[in-house]
Design goal:
Order of helices and strands: HHHHHHHHHHHH
Strand content: under 5%
Helix content: over 70%
Structural class: mainly alpha
Shape: globular
Largest sheet: none
Distance between the termini: 59 Å
Number of helices: 12
Number of strands: 0
């Protein structure tokens, strides 16, 4: 084998291994958000292994020349692998399925941007129940339905096709920042601690005095509300 080719392959393998090792904690952080309130029969170890498979696949296919941060690139692959495993093994109670159907039907009738409060008013559920239902949707709904990251990624990809991509990307970042500022105080705080400070849900709960399950519901509401605001132009 050509010496230069061998060196290139070795460097590529080393980079892939480094990305995997550096991001094991990132897999566990994503998993911590997704497993709060998970049915007891679900095997969390299998879910973590699925996330690791997603991480490995992301590391192998990552191209640093595209100027996208690895975690941004890997997020959907890790989360998608975990969701696929969840859906194989996580049958939800009939009552929860009925609540998901109610919320989905309400969402389709309402004019966006839809808020958790609007869903609560339309379904007759409490805000807490709506948040719990949004959280449960990850088991049965397409990932893009209530996922903030997917929504922003779709906007970014459409921006990338534009000749003014750099300017539009800057505008997208400003739009997201403006929307975050409009979130209710507690939702904004939880979102900031989770994404900016890199805290787990349990750690956030310790900081603000809430249970891990309650933090998970607040985060689900914040992500849904922010996704709607971003999608509808910060209305």
């Amino acid at each position: 084998m050509n010496t230069a080719l061998r060196a290139y392959r070795q460097a590529s393998e080393n980079q892939t291994e480094l990305l995997i090792l550096e991001n094991i904690g990132f897999v566990r952080k994503i998993l911590s958000t997704m497993t709060v309130g998970l049915p007891e029969h679900c095997d969390r170890e299998n879910l973590e292994q699925a996330g690791m498979v997603g991480l490995v696949e992301a590391a192998k296919s990552y191209d640093p020349t595209r100027e996208v941060q690895f975690r941004t690139f890997a997020f959907n692959r890790i989360r998608g692998a975990i969701i696929d495993e969840m859906r194989k093994n996580s049958a939800l109670p009939q009552k929860v399925m009925e609540q998901i159907s109610q919320v989905r039907q309400a969402y389709e009738k309402l004019e966006g941007p839809v808020t958790p409060e609007m869903l609560a008013a339309h379904t007759g559920m409490s805000l807490a129940k709506v948040a719990q239902t949004l959280e449960a949707m990850r088991f049965v709904q397409p990932q893009s339905w209530n996922d903030l990251h997917t929504q922003i990624q779709a906007i970014r990809e459409s921006v990338d096709e534009s000749p003014d991509a750099e300017l539009e990307t800057t505008e997208l970042k400003k739009r997201v920042a403006d929307c975050i500022e409009k979130l209710p105080d507690r939702e904004r705080l939880v979102l900031t601690l989770y994404f900016n400070e890199d805290l787990t849900l349990a750690e956030i709960g310790q900081v603000i005095g809430l249970s891990e399950s309650r933090v998970s519901r607040v985060l689900a509401s914040a992500k849904f509300r922010l996704k709607e605001m971003v999608a509808h132009g910060n209305e």
